[in-house]
Amino acid sequence: MNDTLLTPVLLYQDSDFCVIDKPFGMTTTPDRDKASLVQWAADSLRMKTLHPLSRLDFEVTGAVLFAKSAYAIAHAHDIRGRQNDREYHALVHPAPSENAHWRWPIGKDKRRPERRLIGGIDPQDAHTEMTLAETRGGFAWLRLTPHTGRTHQLRLHSAHAGCPTVGDVVYGGLKRVTLRDGRVIAAGRVMLHAANTVVPNGPRVEAPWREDMRLFWEALASLSRPTE
Length: 228
Fold this sequence. Notes:
Elements: E1 9-13, E2 17-22, H1 37-45, E3 51-52, E4 61-67, H2 70-74, H3 76-80, E5 86-92, E6 100-103, E7 106-108, E8 116-118, E9 121-124, E10 127-136, E11 139-146, H4 153-160, E12 176-179, E13 184-186, E14 192-198, E15 204-206, H5 211-219, E16 223-227
Parallel strand pairs: 4-14
Antiparallel strand pairs: 1-2, 2-4, 3-4, 5-11, 5-14, 6-10, 7-8, 7-9, 10-11, 12-13, 12-16, 14-15
């Protein structure tokens, strides 16, 4: 199951801000030889000055809010502090039993720089609000609101709560599932999606689920058992 959105999509823009829908396999800001949203906007939309107000991991999809005017960029710190204006959707296993607020500090992993740890080196406070949207065959669809913006916050908090994100092998997520008819479906990426974001003094902008995430969730209706 591949992400069917191959290139970014401009979802919204005004004089100060824009929202771009990020596909799988792209960074938010330039990173060595990887394609990035900032470079795409510069080349395709001729937006030469963009400051991201959130950053999505390489494997995560969805809405990214950018400041694009001198005024918005100058106030980026204040705007970025309003983390509860964003909502993410995640597919996890096993399903948590109830809604929760996850408050575990996040720090660096000195042995693996690409990872983060609960605690870890130089930990910072981190707060995620989790709402259980639906369960299906031992899996769950979660609505996640980050009240802080730490690296890997949602992925790590989910894992620490005992319900890692499907496809997130870095933090113990399930990679594949066997259905009742014997078919095995695999998660080709971290099943985490930035579903919507609020534009300051503007609307809430939605980014629809990717086809791979939708098909994975629909397939769970005939779930038999998870496999390693």
